[in-house]
């Protein structure tokens, strides 16, 4: 029985690590030793204001503490939609999403910054150089986004009428890439299958969530 309890405790440490550090499959951090994962879990819970000090005193070898770990997991689940957040962070991008740059003002000279008193001597030339470098990076970002939008528009235009679903009218970037590289498409399908498995797991959790809370 002690071996089974140890296995459960180790699994709970790993589950908490996965919840607190959502990582894509194959990420090097996901294969960290249990002791390292336990220390990271303790640190993350402390930074989020977890109130129970008993968890910080647990051994990190996975030998005991399943009750405290369950309480910590319940605390995280009660604070917010943890499964949905994990799904969103691990979602497979389809390639048609574009983030809108909200800092165009940095790409232009704009008005001078307000004067602020500094505690020590300030190298004004260095500050001006940093601001110029920042504006240059933002111009590069805006230019890159404009180029991506133009390429995305071309893909949608050239594939118009190719989709089996007439309501969509054109292929997505991912669908066009699958036609260009069938082997890469097979890898994408496997990735989508894993995403479907995660979705099914969340649905199964929602069906049994009330039982979990009653048991807790």
UniProtKB/TrEMBL annotation:
Keywords: Signal. Residues 1-28 form the signal peptide. InterPro entries: TEDC1, TEDC1_dom. The lineage of its organism: Eukaryota, Metazoa, Chordata, Craniata, Vertebrata. It comes from the Eukaryota. Residues 49-216 form the Tubulin epsilon and delta complex protein domain. It comes from Pan troglodytes (Chimpanzee). Pfam families: TEDC1 (PF14970). The keyword Lipid biosynthesis does not apply. This is C14orf80 isoform 3.
